[in-house]
Design a protein that fits this description.
Blueprint: E1 2-5, H1 7-14, E2 18-19, H2 25-39, E3 47-55, H3 60-73, E4 79-84, E5 88-93, E6 102-105, H4 112-120, E7 131-137, E8 141-149, H5 157-173, H6 187-199, H7 206-217, E9 236-245, H8 246-258, H9 263-279, E10 283-291, H10 296-299, E11 306-314, H11 320-334, H12 342-348, E12 359-366, H13 372-380, E13 386-388, E14 396-403, E15 407-415, H14 418-439, H15 448-457
């Protein structure tokens, strides 16, 4: 069973008037990247796909109500975009959210491959209905699936939709009234405030100058990928490695704290050290993806709030402790820069440029402490929650280090070709060796001699 907008709903939404609210910088970059990839005949990775299990037989009527309530409740879904006069992006917004109406459509039995093809065929970000919901009914439970273009959501979405849909569905199924959810925040409000903030920036603004300095330290552009991805061809693939168990994770954190940093600083320092061991680069320039939500309203808002924090870490002859301190200071002092989009920096400093290749990004999630740990244990446990990729070509080299209560693991998204696969395999092997070395108490000595010896032996 899948849910699609009704023909009447599609017609009303497509007639929505132009809105004065601009697309967020994140949305504008995504739309332009999509058009650029499409012009080159490349299928860009763009969908956020997730699933989880729920017991019993799905009540289609109840779930239909829940899905429509969700879509009407969050204004990120109330708009669609088009290009006009070349590169100008126009937003169209539905006046009445009640015009949004999804209806269940029963499909014949599908093979896993047919279901995958249906999910990844979710319409493009240039169409309003770039989202899909589905249910796979099994003998004693059902699997709920969603596929939503990144245009509408960010990484915080999984926890939000899991809690919202789960609470509403289970409450209604038990015969109760819909739960009293807190009022949703407005992504349109964020878009307006973001543009007001960025429009007030000048070349002399400290935040802009910090970005200009970072670009110029990298020859006027952003850092290159730390590994070879071959010719960049191939669908998006994912490589996963368990870095540390529960005790090793605790020991690693103790080493970070003893050095004057936090676990996050250790994550950033380890990325710097693996690049040094593989390439010999004595200074690490990285970009850390960061959620820019800062107010209660924003934390109740579904939308795309991700920004990037530039970090600079000298590692040439450093111990792990020195690298952690440098990493933590660089990240903490640069967090405000996440509110300054690349596009605005390039407008104010046109001699800078975006790189031709993929920009490496570093993501860190700590789900070992509240509130995420509570959600993971009470709501996610036993639910078989999964995140899936759509197989499109990734726009970047993404390293994600996730800490949970019982372990820490790393994932890398990369284009699936032989050169990239070999490079990423070696990268993750080296990364794991650094984490284990620190967890075992062998991170106090300078690292340059070990790295140099390893490169000589290759």
């Amino acid at each position: 069973m899948c849910w699609h907008p009704s023909p009447a709903s599609l017609n009303k939404v497509r007639q929505a008037p132009v809105s004065a609210v601009p697309a967020s910088h994140q949305q504008a970059r995504h739309l332009r990247n999509f058009v650029d990839h499409a012009a080159r005949g490349v299928d860009m990775s763009r969908l956020c796909i997730g699933s989880w299990d729920m017991p019993g037989r799905c009540d289609i009527r109840v779930l239909t109500y829940v899905i429509n309530t969700h879509l009407r409740r969050h204004d990120t879904y109330h708009s669609w975009f088009e290009f006009a006069d070349g590169d100008r992006i126009l937003r169209h917004t539905v006046r009445n959210p009640a015009d949004i109406q999804c209806v269940p459509v029963k499909h014949d039995e599908m093979s896993p491959e047919e279901l995958r093809e249906h999910i990844v065929a979710t319409p493009s970000p240039l169409e309003w209905e770039c989202f899909r919901f589905a249910v796979i009914q099994r003998a004693d439970h059902f699997t709920f699936c969603f596929s939503i273009d990144h245009l509408y959501i960010d990484a915080q979405f999984l926890g939000a939709i899991r809690m919202e849909l789960y609470l509403m569905y289970t409450s209604l199924l038990a015969g109760g009234a819909p739960p009293a959810l807190p009022a949703a925040g407005s992504y349109e409000k964020y878009c307006v405030q973001q543009h007001e903030y960025t429009s007030a920036l000048t070349l002399d603004s400290p935040q802009v100058q910090a970005w200009v300095d970072f670009f110029e330290q990298n020859d006027g552009t952003l850092p290159e990928c730390p590994v070879s991805l071959g010719d960049g061809s191939g669908a998006c693939d994912l490589m996963f490695v368990r870095l540390m168990d529960e005790q090793q994770t605790a020991d690693f954190e103790d080493a970070c704290i003893a050095a004057g940093g936090r676990f996050s600083g250790g994550v950033f320092a380890s990325a710097a050290l693996v690049q040094y061991e593989l390439t010999g680069a004595e200074t690490y320039y990285g970009l850390v993806a960061c959620d820019t939500r800062s107010s209660r309203d924003e934390f109740l808002t579904i939308g795309w709030f991700t920004g990037f924090v530039p970090i600079t870490i000298p590692v040439g002859s450093s111990s792990f402790g020195a690298a952690v301190r440098a990493a933590q200071q660089s990240f903490d002092s640069g967090k405000a820069l996440a509110n300054v989009p690349f596009a605005r920096v390039l407008e104010l400093a046109p001699w800078l440029r975006m790189p031709q290749g993929r920009v490496p990004l570093l993501f860190h999630l700590d789900a070992s402490s509240p509130p995420l740990s509570t959600i993971v244990k009470s709501e996610w446990g036993g639910s078989n929650i999964k995140i899936h990729h759509d197989g499109g070509v990734p726009a970047r080299f993404d390293l994600r280090v996730n800490r949970y209560e019982k372990e820490t693991h790393a994932m890398v998204f990369f284009p699936d070709n032989p050169v990239a696969r070999e490079s990423v395999t070696r990268y993750l092997e080296t990364l794991k060796s650094i984490y284990l070395r620190v967890a075992e108490g062998r991170g106090g000595a300078p690292l340059w001699d070990v790295a140099a010896l390893q490169r000589q032996l290759v």
